[in-house]
Design brief:
Layout: E1 3-6, E2 9-15, E3 24-29, H1 40-43, E4 50-55, H2 71-84, E5 91-95, H3 97-108, E6 115-119, H4 129-137, H5 142-145, H6 152-158, H7 167-179, E7 192-198, H8 206-215, E8 219-224, H9 231-234, H10 236-247
Parallel strand pairs: 3-4, 3-5, 5-6, 6-7, 7-8
Antiparallel strand pairs: 1-2, 2-4
Helix pairs in contact: 2-3, 4-7
Length: 248
């Protein structure tokens, strides 16, 4: 099981097995309560010249530590991971809470990321009290996360690592999301940006992605039909086609 020590804790990651020094890394960051597993469909794709890496954030699934209550703390972990892996630069791709981490990291370390990918996310991620309560109780959000016609087997595959992260960590993730707000700073993001959103996303509606497109100067927006919040699973072929086009 590949791990990288960051601040004394082992952080689990998955990659396609390519050499990092010979292929440009793309680092995928999952959302609240998730794990590297959510990027399985992207890790399967061979994009010439690129090496995909997906990690479990601290306290999630196989990674040590306790999770965090602030997006800035997760940014610090990501920078520590990049440095510990010996990466000089990478494309940073984040889903939902991972997109919040990606935005803040791009603002603070623009030269480290020549490109970023924002998936099902927003410049502000307010969380309803009901969602915080459900997270504390350990409930799944699969009833909100997929388009109505999404394949049930696909949903089960996407959700199969749900129980590996504790309700406490998931609750803290949603607190971090609720406190996140870059509405007045997102215009300062410099790296070239790809914005992806499922047309039927209920958790981070399309209007969130449109706001990002309108305010990030060097950005491109792709809205993918027949997909909800888990667009990278629901329409993985189209998602990967757009991602590869952006990277190459």
């Amino acid at each position: 099981m590949p791990e990288c020590a960051v601040s004394g804790d082992n952080i689990y990651y998955r990659s396609c097995g390519k050499n990092f020094s010979e292929n440009f890394p793309v680092l995928f960051i999952h959302g609240a309560g998730g794990s590297a597993h959510v990027w399985s469909k992207q890790l399967e794709v061979d994009i010439p010249g690129y090496c995909p890496i997906a990690l479990d954030l601290p306290g999630h699934a196989r990674s040590q530590a306790c999770g965090e209550e602030h997006i800035q703390a997760y940014v610090n972990w990501i920078i520590g991971f990049i440095q510990a892996m010996g990466l000089n630069q990478c494309v940073l791709a984040g889903h939902s809470m991972g997109g919040a981490i990606t935005q803040l990291a791009a603002l603070q370390w623009p030269r480290l990321f020549p490109g970023i990918v924002l998936v099902g996310t927003g410049a502000r991620l307010r969380v309803a009290e009901e969602v915080l309560t459900r997270a504390w109780q350990g409930d799944s959000f699969a009833d909100y996360a997929y388009a109505p016609n999404s394949d049930k087997y696909l949903q089960q595959e996407a959700e199969k690592e749900f129980g590996l992260t504790s309700p406490e960590v998931r609750y803290r993730d949603f607190l971090a999301c609720d406190r996140f707000d870059l509405m007045h700073r997102v215009q300062q993001i410099e790296p070239r940006t790809l914005i992806l959103c499922g047309q039927e996303d209920k958790l981070t509606p399309v209007k969130y992605s449109r706001f990002l497109k309108e305010n990030i100067l060097d950005s491109r927006l792709e809205i993918i039909p027949d997909a909800g919040h888990m667009v990278m699973w629901e329409q993985s072929k189209e998602f990967n086609r757009i991602l590869e086009e952006f990277l190459t």
